[in-house]
Design brief:
Mean pLDDT: 96
Shape: globular
Distance between the termini: 21 Å
Helix content: 25-40%
């Protein structure tokens, strides 16, 4: 499931993050790419130990923890510490697949996330392109919004031709490994909440809640 999620960050949080990044020093992003992705990665990122990185990670982590839609869609077990990337004019990230096994902490990547930090009106290019059996889809979301998608997909970031593209990226090991099962659970959860808002706690709501809970018991992995 590919899902765009608006308003991960509040306007105040977004302003604080961007202010930190405006004066931060960035380094070559190849250091955190796998051996094959390193060949096509042309961007910069905040280095480990950067004071700005620590602040931004804290803000974004708190936002993800409280965001109900993100939690419903992803079912996070482990969220990898954020990388903050910057694309200046001419920078891009060619087609690649994210590493299945990641370290520090050791985890399996099930879901990838890009949180857009730059207003799309301030830069040209820089679209996130995700490939699937239906073809390619391009995403360039408002600042403060995120996209989550299976880490198993081929994807790329198009070259920036004007302005600067800032983004936070991370990877999640989900409690539910299979993306199709995550989507089923998400649909059921959405349906039961919609039913509750319309009619309250009815027998139909109880049955959907029972099925949702029992599927979670069947599919959750720790």
């Amino acid at each position: 499931m590919i899902l765009c999620i608006g308003d991960i960050l509040t306007p105040t949080e977004l302003e604080a993050v961007v202010a930190k990044l405006e004066t931060a020093e960035f380094v070559d992003g190849k250091a955190t790419a796998g051996w094959h992705a390193r060949l096509v990665k042309r961007n910069t990122q905040l280095p480990q130990g950067s004071p700005a990185l620590a602040v931004v990670r804290e803000i974004v982590s708190a936002a993800l923890q409280r965001h109900v839609l993100f939690q419903m869609a992803v079912r996070p077990h482990i969220i990898r510490p954020m990388l903050i990337s910057r694309y200046d004019i001419g920078m891009s990230y060619g087609t690649h697949v994210d590493n299945a096994l990641m370290h520090d902490p050791s985890m399996r990547s099930d879901v990838s996330m890009t949180l857009f930090l730059s207003d799309p009106a301030t830069y040209e290019g820089g679209e996130l392109i995700i490939e699937s059996t239906q073809g390619e889809a391009a995403f360039k979301l408002p600042a403060g919004s995120a996209i989550v998608y299976p880490s198993s997909t081929l994807h790329r970031v198009e070259a920036v031709t004007q302005g600067v593209r800032l983004a936070a990226v991370t990877w999640i090991q989900s409690l539910v490994r299979d993306p199709n099962r995550r989507e089923i659970l998400f649909d059921l959860d959405t349906a039961r909440q919609t039913l509750f808002e319309a009619s309250g706690k009815t027998p139909a709501f109880d049955l959907i809640s029972k099925s949702h809970a029992n599927l979670l018991r069947e599919w959750i992995e720790f």
